[in-house]
Amino acid sequence: MMDQTQHTTPYGTASLILIEHTSGQVALLCDEDQPHAAIYAAKALGATRVIEVVSARPLDRLLDRGDIVLPDDLVDLTCGRRSTFFVGKGYGFIPQRPVFCPEVRSALLAGVRAGGGRSFARGTLAVVEDWGQSQAAREWGAHILASTVAPAAYLAKELELCYAPLCIVEEEEELPAALLSAAIEHLPPARLCSCQSAMQPARQRGLVGDDWRLWMDV
Description:
Elements: E1 4-9, E2 12-19, E3 25-30, H1 35-44, E4 47-58, E5 68-69, E6 73-76, H2 102-115, E7 119-120, E8 124-127, H3 134-139, E9 144-146, H4 152-158, E10 162-169, H5 177-185, H6 200-204
Parallel strand pairs: 3-4, 4-10, 5-7, 6-8, 8-9
Antiparallel strand pairs: 1-2, 2-3, 4-9, 5-10
Helix pairs in contact: 2-5
């Protein structure tokens, strides 16, 4: 059973699902249209990892309805979205390679393979503001389209959360509970990825302290 939790943040009220894990709670999102609120809530509620289930449209002719894609790259074709918590802060650039947490992607891949069905372990996701941008996405070499993931992927990194999307082609159904549970079981007990130290350069320069709530201007 996956129960939703609501949490009020400076960016609005977020609804997410939390699952216990030895490394900290895992937050589950679904086609999140309020990423600032959702990522802030995940951090505030003690999550260390975030998985977003995304309804995607195919650009690659190999993809069929119901296929699962775990993208390893992102093309952001949005314009005007607020892509950071740190407006005007001058903390410096956070590298976006890899754009998604490799540990969460590996766990998702293990969960997908355990559940069977068609899945693809790599691909480029284009995030768009309207579906008419499909041609531009093809020119960037994208395999699938979605309206979410950016800026959620950037925001999660700013709060040192692990983040990865699970994209389901042309499906708008309930969360794949069995698949996600299997994936979470494959997460390592401790985080060894670079996500947990994304803000370390800012710490070393004395620009931020231990209280992450003070990192942003809300």
